[in-house]
Design a protein that fits this description.
Blueprint lengths: L4 E2 L1 E3 L2 E3 L4 E5 L6 E6 L3 H16 L8 H17 L1 H12 L3 H24 L3 E3 L6 E9 L2 E5 L7 H13 L2 E5 L6 H13 L6 E3 L4 H13 L5 E5 L2 H11 L5 E5 L5 E4 L5 H13 L11 E5 L3 H12 L20 H17 L1 E4 L3 E2 L2 E2 L2 E4 L6 H4 L6 E7 L2 H9 L3 E2 L2 E4 L3 H10 L6 E2 L15 E2 L2 E2 L4 H6 L2 E9 L2
Parallel strand pairs: 1-5, 8-9, 8-11, 9-10, 11-12, 13-14, 13-21, 14-19, 18-19, 21-22
Antiparallel strand pairs: 2-3, 4-5, 6-7, 7-25, 12-24, 15-18, 16-17, 20-23
The protein binds nicotinamide-adenine-dinucleotide (NAD).
Nicotinamide-adenine-dinucleotide binds next to helix 7 and helix 8.
Family: Belongs to the aldehyde dehydrogenase family.
Protein name: Betaine-aldehyde dehydrogenase
Pfam families: Aldedh
């Protein structure tokens, strides 16, 4: 198998960097790729390129149909290169190939969605308030947008920011995580093939320490108008502080510790099967993971038995195999972090199933009788670890769900729509699932957090508005 080498992507072309770094597979340690280790100067070059493309280039004022064509052509190219993109994710991040192919398909749909919205951008008019005047409300691109992304959705995490940014007419600099930078580099090349003008999309890859330098440069640069960040809450706070210098628009997609609430009148078999996928999907390395299970005491024993049964169906193994449902954790460092939480769980709660590990793998692990105020229930683990917390009343369940610094997602399982809706309204999170988790097949609904899970939204119309400014015009009629 050949080992690809990637450079920086600046001004629409591959650009070598003085220093390079290697990424090894977290599954078997083989070399997955070599990448440019970009630094402060490269970050400045990328921002300069995007700034020139915005101030002097054709993209911000290009007709909507041009943006539509580029976005739809990129979607087509993603689909045509799905195996290549998925292989990058498998080798660099250990994501199972079935999930990786699903991510490519979701990314293509996201590009198509924003291609459609690009055609539909409309301002509005204020016509009747004063018969002697006319008001216009225009929607303009926000300017140069910087995208700083995590490794857990290494393609969709970039596309869900890039597609609305391009649809709005912005130009972009991007900094993917050093743990899985390849998909962003391939995306840049495919955008070039699709005909995106040079300078509209620029990518700086870097290894871990330089990544923070590049990220801080983007966040603090006065030539950047908007920052869209996905990552941990601590890094997001550092980004927000750095962005204050020129009061740039900031969107932060941060961590979570979401509660999945199961009532006795729920379809229990479905609820148990989904409760397992809610915290094992992507090996638990997922911001919206249903990592707290709030379980009604009346169904406690029956439901735990179902959980054990479904946990046993997970297939841990080679991420390149289609049958694998759970790959390794992203790195040795993350693996050790998760093992620390397993030790904590054994000391403070009751191990129901799992707890084993080999290589960078961790088995689906369920702890029962977890105190909601404990670290196990309050901190984002980012691994396949579920904390079961019993409850008796609906009010207690809502209070437990809300007793968290985070507010990203949540689930409620019940046969009663009245109960479901009261809980949905009571829980303070950016998204809720009723009798499902992670998806009901409704793509392109806004995603984002309350509280310390972040600010701003991705996907949907709200995702486009993040990259637009409103300009009002008052015309005095004579
Ligand atoms: P991270 O915070 O370590 O890194 C995120 C990105 O920020 C990386 O590209 C990194 O290089 C960069 N970075 C690091 N230090 C920086 C600094 N000082 N200034 C600017 N940029 C800097 O997060 P991660 O480990 O890559 O990702 C995991 C986290 O992402 C989890 O907390 C997860 O919940 C969160 N996440 C959230 C969402 C969401 O939509 N809410 C989605 C996926 C992941």
């Amino acid at each position: 198998m050949t080992t690809p080498q990637f450079d920086l992507w600046l001004d629409g072309a591959n650009t070598p960097a003085a220093v390079r770094f290697e990424r090894h597979s977290p599954f078997d340690g083989t070399l997955a790729g070599t990448f440019a280790d970009g630094g402060e100067q490269d970050a400045a070059a990328a921002v300069g390129s995007a700034r020139r493309a915005f101030d002097d280039g054709p993209w911000p004022s290009s007709p909507a149909r041009r943006r539509f064509e580029i976005l739809t052509e990129t979607a087509r190219l993603l689909t045509a290169n799905a195996d290549l993109l998925a292989e990058r994710m498998v080798r660099e991040s250990g994501k199972p190939v079935t999930l990786a192919l699903g991510e490519v398909a979701a990314s293509a749909r996201c590009l198509e969605y924003y291609a459609g919205l690009a055609l539909a951008v409309e301002g509005s008019a204020v016509s009747e308030r004063n018969p002697g005047a006319l008001g216009l409300i225009l929607r303009e691109p926000v300017g140069v947008a910087a995208l700083i992304t995590a490794w857990n959705f290494p393609l969709l995490g970039v596309v869900c920011k890039l597609a609305p940014a391009l649809a709005a007419g912005c130009t972009v600099v991007a900094k993917p995580s050093h743990l899985c930078p390849g998909p962003t580099m391939l995306l840049a090349q495919l955008l070039g093939t699709a005909g995106l003008p040079g300078g509209v999309f620029n990518v700086v890859t870097s290894q871990r320490e330089q990544g923070a330098v590049v990220g801080q440069h983007f966040a603090s640069s006065r030539a950047v108008d908007k920052i869209a960040f996905t990552g941990s809450t601590a890094t997001g706070q550092a980004v927000m502080r750095a962005a204050a210098g020129n009061a740039k628009r900031v969107a932060l997609e941060l961590g979570g510790k979401s509660a999945n609430i199961v009532f006795p009148d729920a379809p229990l078999a479905d609820a148990a099967r989904t409760a397992i996928s809610a915290f094992t999907f992507n090996s638990g390395q997922q911001c919206s993971a249903g990592s707290r299970l709030l379980l009604h005491r009346d169904i406690h024993d029956e439901f735990l038995a179902l959980l054990v049964e479904h946990a046993g169906k997970q297939v841990l193994g080679d991420p390149a195999e289609a049958a694998t449902t759970m790959g390794p954790l992203i790195s040795r460092r993350q693996h050790e972090r998760v093992l620390g939480y397993l030790d904590l769980g054994r000391a403070e709660a009751k191990l129901v199933t799992g707890g084993g590990s080999h290589g960078n793998f961790v088995e689906p692990t369920v702890f029962d009788g977890v105190d909601n105020s404990s670290r196990l229930a309050q901190e984002e683990i980012f691994g396949p670890v579920l904390s079961v917390i019993p409850f008796t009343t609906e009010q207690e369940a809502v209070a437990l769900a809300n007793d968290s610094a985070y507010g990203l997602a949540g689930g409620v399982w019940t046969g009663s729509m009245d109960t479901a809706f009261r809980v949905v309204r009571g829980v303070r999170t950016g998204k809720m699932f009723v009798n499902c988790y992670n998806t009901a097949g409704l793509d392109d609904m806004p995603h984002g957090g309350y509280k310390e899970s972040g600010t701003g939204r991705e996907f949907g119309h709200a995702g486009l508005e993040e990259f637009q400014e409103l300009k009002t015009v008052q015309i005095l009629l004579r």
